[in-house]
């Protein structure tokens, strides 16, 4: 199970996605932990069993147990935060900003890995779920940590191609009646 297996599972019409998976992940300039933490966190956020199975298998080869758990934690906490903060924003009533979240988010303060890595993974998950508030917040935090825009851009590219693979495989599963 691996990135190659995932690429092989994509249908012919998704040739661009297949090629992008290979090039974006295979030639990424991100350090291994940042790359594979991003891959795993967004694979979880994409909610496609095949994508998650294949990419988690390969992520295990590149990440420590702590980093694996932190990437999973980023996906989990952002699944909650993206819904909460996006909803408050979309309601459009500033009074909601005065109400405390009262949601546990301690993992953000102590993720078990470098906080910049965790922030990058959180940003990538927020791209998948479309929470503009979280995207802006994590991007600002990363930029204050002197992370270059090119690195943030790279994580967004990873999120985009993993998501494209998940959408394609979901469509194939539904259309084939499986």
Automatic annotation (TrEMBL):
Segments forming domain Carboxymuconolactone decarboxylase-like: 95-175
Intrachain S-S bonds: 131-134
Active site: 131, 134
Top-level enzyme category: oxidoreductase
UniProt-listed Enzyme Commission number(s): 1.11.1.28
Annotated signal sequence range: none
Keywords from the UniProt entry: Antioxidant, Disulfide bond, Oxidoreductase, Peroxidase, Redox-active center
UniProt catalytic activity: N(6)-[(R)-dihydrolipoyl]-L-lysyl-[lipoyl-carrier protein] + a hydroperoxide = N(6)-[(R)-lipoyl]-L-lysyl-[lipoyl-carrier protein] + an alcohol + H2O
Keyword presence, Disulfide bond: yes
Domain of life: Bacteria
InterPro entries given in the database record: AhpD, AhpD-like, AhpD_core, CMD-like
Quaternary organization: Homotrimer.
Similarity-based family: Belongs to the AhpD family.
Its job: Antioxidant protein with alkyl hydroperoxidase activity. Required for the reduction of the AhpC active site cysteine residues and for the regeneration of the AhpC enzyme activity.
Protein name: Alkyl hydroperoxide reductase AhpD
């Amino acid at each position: 199970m691996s990135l190659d297996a995932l690429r092989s599972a994509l249908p012919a019409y998704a040739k661009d996605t297949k090629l992008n998976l290979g090039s974006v992940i295979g030639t990424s300039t991100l350090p291994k932990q940042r790359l594979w933490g991003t891959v795993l966190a967004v694979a979880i956020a994409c909610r496609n069993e095949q994508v998650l199975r294949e990419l988690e298998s390969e992520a295990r080869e590149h990440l420590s147990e702590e980093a694996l758990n932190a990437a999973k934690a980023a996906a989990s906490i952002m699944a909650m935060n993206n819904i909460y903060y996006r909803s408050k924003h979309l309601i459009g009533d500033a009074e909601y900003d005065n109400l405390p979240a009262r949601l546990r988010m301690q993992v953000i303060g102590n993720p078990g890995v470098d906080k910049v890595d965790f922030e990058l993974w959180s940003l990538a998950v927020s791209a998948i779920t479309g929470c503009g508030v979280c995207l802006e917040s994590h991007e600002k935090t990363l930029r204050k940590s002197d992370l270059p825009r090119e690195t943030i851009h790279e994580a967004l590219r990873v999120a985009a191609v993993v998501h494209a693979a998940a959408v394609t495989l979901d469509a194939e599963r539904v259309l084939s009646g499986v």
